[in-house]
Amino acid sequence: MSPVVRPEPDGASEPAVDVAARPRLVEPWPPGVSREPTMRISDVLADLGGDFPALTPSKLRFLEEQGLVEPRRTAGGYRQYSRADLERLRFVLTQQRDRYLPLRVIREQLDALDAGETGQAPAPRLAAADGERATSPGPTGGRWTVAGLAEHVGTGEEVVTALLEAGILRRDAAGHLEPWSREALEVAVALAEHGVEPRHLRPLRSAVDKQVDMVGQIVAPLRGQRAVAAQAHAASVADELAELFSRLHTVLVRGGVSDLPL
User: What molecular functions are annotated in GO for this chain (predicted)?
Assistant: First the structure.
C-alpha cells in the first residue's frame, strides 16, 4: 500500500516520514571510544575506585536503573561494560561530586552530548590513541599500604603514621588504608606547610564522624529494605548527603575566613 500523502497548506505534498526510522547521524558520547563490552563490575570499580572510593556495585546498578548507563548482559545475566560506558560513568560521578548536580540534570547533559548539541564535551580520559585503556598509578586492589601511600604522595611514612594515630586516616578490616587516603594525605601535607599538624585535625575527624552518623540515620529506612533498588537508592542518597555536607563545610569555612580582620 502506498503511503498516504497529505497536502501542505501551500499545495506542496510530501509522504510522511518515520523520524524514528532515520539512521543516527551523531555517534553517542564519547565518540571514538570502544563500545565492546569487555569489563565486569569488578573491573569498573577497580578503574574508578581511585577517584570515587565510595562507588559500589549497588551504585552502579542504581545508575543503570536511572538510564545513565546501559551495560550489556551475558547469557548468564551478568553485566558487562565497555570503555565508553566507563567514560559515561566517570562523567556522571564527576558531575555529582564536583557540581552537586541531580541525576535528572546529568541525564539531560548526556542526552545533549549524545545528540551532539554541545561543544563542551569533556575529553575521555581512559581511551588512548590506539583504543587501549590508559591506566594511572594507584593502590593494588584499591587499598594502600603505609609505605606505598607515602611513596606515591612523596612524603615520609612517619607522616602517614601520625595521621593514623590522629584518626584522620583509617585502616580497613584487612589492615590496608582506604582508597580515599591518598587525597586526605595530600591535603594534610599541604596543611603541614602552614604549620597544621595531624593532632590539630582531630576535631575535624570528630565532626566528620557525627555527620556520617547523621547520614546513616537518614538512609537507615532504605537500607533496611531487602530490594536491590532500595539498597542502590540508599547508596545514592548517602553520596548526595555526603557531598552536601562537604559543600556546607566549605561555605562555612570560607565565610568565617572572610570575616577575619585581615
Answer: DNA binding; DNA-binding transcription factor activity
Q: And the C-alpha cell for 184?
A: 586526605
Joined together, the cell numbers standing for residue 103 give: 541525576
Whole domain around residue 223: which residue ranges?
202-256
- In the three-class reduction of DSSP (H, G, I as helix; E, B as strand; rest coil), residue 7 is classed as strand
The CATH number of the domain holding residue 154 is 1.10.1660
What backbone torsions phi and psi does residue 165 show, to the nearest 5 degrees? -65, -30
- Angle, CA 259 vertex, CA 257 and CA 261 arms, to 5°: 100
Query: Each residue of 204-244: pLDDT tens digit?
Result: 999 999 999 999 999 899 878 877 677 777 877 887 788 78
The sign one gets for the Cα dihedral 66, 64, 59, 220 is positive
Q: Which three cell numbers stand for residue 9?
A: 497548506
Per DSSP, helices labelled H in 25-82 are: 41-48, 57-65
Specify if 128 maps to a domain: no
**DSSP state, 140?**
G
**Nearest Cα to 96, choosing from 254, 236, 257?**
236
What are the residues facing 13 on neighbouring strands? 7
Its pTM stands at 0.53
As for how many domains the chain has, the answer is 3
Q: For residue range 62-94, what is the model confidence (pLDDT) as tens digits? A: 889 888 999 999 888 889 999 999 999 999 998
Q: Is residue 63 part of a domain?
A: yes
Looking at 72, 100, 115, the residue that finishes a domain is: 115
